[in-house]
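Notebook B, p. 112. Complex prediction, attempt 2.
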Amino acid sequence: NAGVTQTPKFQVLKTGQSMTLQCAQDMNHEYMSWYRQDPGMGLRLIHYSVGAGITDQGEVPNGYNVSRSTTEDFPLRLLSAAPSQTSVYFCASSPAGEGYGYTFGSGTRLTVV
Amino acid sequence: GESVGLHLPTLSVQEGDNSIINCAYSNSASDYFIWYKQESGKGPQFIIDIRSNMDKRQGQRVTVLLNKTVKHLSLQIAATQPGDSAVYFCAENSGGSNYKLTFGKGTLLTVNP
C-alpha cells in the first residue's frame, strides 16, 4: 500500500513549455485534489475530483487542466508554463463521505524559468 | 496563531512544555476541521480532526478545541518534543463540502532542546 504517489519530485521548465504532473493512489479513494503551496502561504486548491469522470475547479484553476479517467490516477497538466506557476504541488486523496481527512503525496517542486 | 498576513506566524517553545496553536476559520457553514503537520520537504500529515457537533477531541498528546461561536480552532500539544517541530495547518471542509478543504496559512512550531 503506497498511498499517494507523485512524480516527478522535481522539475524545471522553461516558460511556455507544457508538462503533466502525475498522481496515483492505491487506496480506492473516490475524492482526489491538487493543491499548490507557495512560500508563507497555505495550500490552495487548484482542481478536484469526486470520482472517475468528474472534475471541477478549485480556487486557482487558471493555467491547469485535469482529467480523471480512472479512480487511481489524477494527472495535472500545465498548458503553457509561466514563472507564476513556480510552486510545490501536492496531490491528495480521501474516501467519499463525511469525516475523512485527505492523505497527501510528498509533492512535486516545480520551477519555471 | 495563524493570520492572513504574508509572514508565517511562529511559535517557539522549550522541550517538555505544552504548545497551543490557534486558527481562525472563515466559513460558518464548515462542519469538519482537521489539523495537519508538515515537516520540511514533505507533504502534510493528518494529526487529528473534529466535527462541529463536538467542542473537544483528544488524541495521543494532542487535543483539538473548537469554538463555533467565534469560529476558532486550537491545537494543544502536550510535552512538546523536538520531533514536533514543523508547520501546522488547520483546514476546514469548505462550507460543508466534504470533497474540498480550505487551509489556513500555517504556524511554524520550533521546539528548543
